[in-house]
Amino acid sequence: MSTFANHSTNESSGHNWRCQFKEDFKYILLPVSYTLVFVIGLGLNVTAMYVILFRTKRWNPSTVYMFNLTVCDTLYILTLPFLIYYYADENDWPFSDSFCKLIRFLFYANLYGSILFLCCISLHRFLGVCYPMRSLSWVSARRARLVSVTVWACVLMCQAPVLYFSRTRDNGTERVCFDTSSPELFHDFLVYSSVVSVLMFAFPFMVVMVCYGLMVRKLLEPSWGAGGSQSRGAGGLAAHRSKQKSVKMIIIVLAVFMLCFLPFHLTRSLYYSLRYLEQMDPSQVSCELLKASSLAYKVTRPLASANSCVDPILYFMAGQGFRSNLTNRSRTSPRKPGSVTVALSTQL
Asked: Which InterPro entries does this one have (predicted)?
């Protein structure tokens, strides 16, 4: 909820904003988009959860990370009906202040939990492709569980301040549930938000890009996973399928970052910066520019939520089924020199 959303919000906050404008479009955009995310995301994540819990006999590190990613997404999706009602009722929060804090906390916990678990999946696959022999002693399901616990601890610790910043405020007969902070706490929230964006988005995004750059370079090597004359044999077939799976994972994860996470963080940073400048020196920022940045930020919020729909696709398209199939092939087919790398990276 923007502090620029309506005149009554500005008055109740005790701040005299120079730029005041309505954002009635979000009362249609957000309920509709959140409804789609709820229906599609809940179906996909429940299906993924069922497959992981009841159809997966042996968990490997990727399964552990995907399970935690699915839990993260499901917790957030279950909060969407309350936000749908809130925005459909034009920012009239009928629930308690504590529940407002919980809803906002779960949004950011899902956002940054998804980013960190996708980073873990990418690092794991990077080791399997680029260092298949060495990483046999580095990765295991037990270590993946320890990493997952560490990720959850970091997310909960870093997002705990959201429980302080998020709060409700009565505006006449309505109650607003701020999605960032109340106006008097905005400066503190800006510092906190900037630090979290760097540590939990910019840095993991850089790690993912570096890993995928090295993976692509490795996959493009003619000698990767195949050895000369057997390119048409079992080793060559396994290498081709392993490359396909790696390429699919790269495309899906990059799509999540580029379509869901990057636009949200860019527009949010721009909007917060302009809003801060408008408070410090109104002459530096025009109302039209501030309005445009606020519009862009509101439009990208549903994109950030849509990661809950895209994440399960990573499991179904580049996950357990392909891995089991390739592992079985590697065990039953004759071992050729180039197939060893493929078998190891497949099992990883």
From this structure: GPCR_Rhodpsn, GPCR_Rhodpsn_7TM, P2Y2_rcpt
Cβ neighbours of residue 9 closer than 8 Å, sequence gap 6 or more: 1, 3, 169, 171, 176
User: For the chain, what percentages of helix, strand and coil (3-state, to nearest 5) are there?
Assistant: 75, 0, 20
Mean pLDDT for 57-73 is 91
**pLDDT band at residue 287 using 50, 70 and 90 as cut-offs:** confident
* Segment holding 175, helix H or strand E: strand 174-177
Global model pTM greater than 0.90: no
- Considering the four listed CATH numbers 2.60.40.10, 3.40.50.720, 1.20.1070.10, 3.30.420.40, the one that applies to the domain covering 7-347 is 1.20.1070.10
- For 137-148, how does the pLDDT look when each residue is reduced to its tens digit (9 = 90+)? 778 889 999 999
pLDDT band of 218, cuts 50, 70, 90 = confident
Would you state the pLDDT for residue 82? 94
Provide long-range contacts, Cβ within 8 A and 24+ apart, for 274-281: 275/186, 276/186, 276/187, 276/190, 278/17, 278/18, 278/19, 279/186
Which residues 6+ apart lie within 8 Å of 317 measured at CB?
Answer: 248, 252
Written as six digits, the tokens of 9 are: 């919000």
Q: What is the mean pLDDT of the chain?
A: 81
Which runs of consecutive H residues, i.e. helices, occur in 131-233?
141-159, 162-165, 186-197, 203-219
